[in-house]
Design goal:
Number of strands: 0
Order of helices and strands: HH
Helix content: 55-70%
Largest sheet: none
Oligomer: single chain
């Protein structure tokens, strides 16, 4: 059993976040496939996650202006 404590505040946002993940992956040149991506390197996964966070922070900053 997984011990994942990450809980989504808005479960309906999962689809949008998944779509966002694939968009960011294509922007940084990482080929994600539907389903299992266990062969993805840690570096590539970090590039995707880091760029997702960067874009989300930029969006939040724009909304606060």
């Amino acid at each position: 059993m997984s011990n994942n404590s990450n809980k989504k505040l808005v479960p309906e946002a999962m689809t949008a976040l998944d779509k966002f993940k694939y968009e960011v992956a294509s922007e940084v040149g990482v080929n994600l496939k539907d389903g299992y991506n266990g062969d993805l390197s840690s570096r590539d996964a970090g590039r995707i996650g880091g760029n997702m966070v960067r874009k989300l922070v930029q969006q939040a900053e724009q909304q606060m202006k």
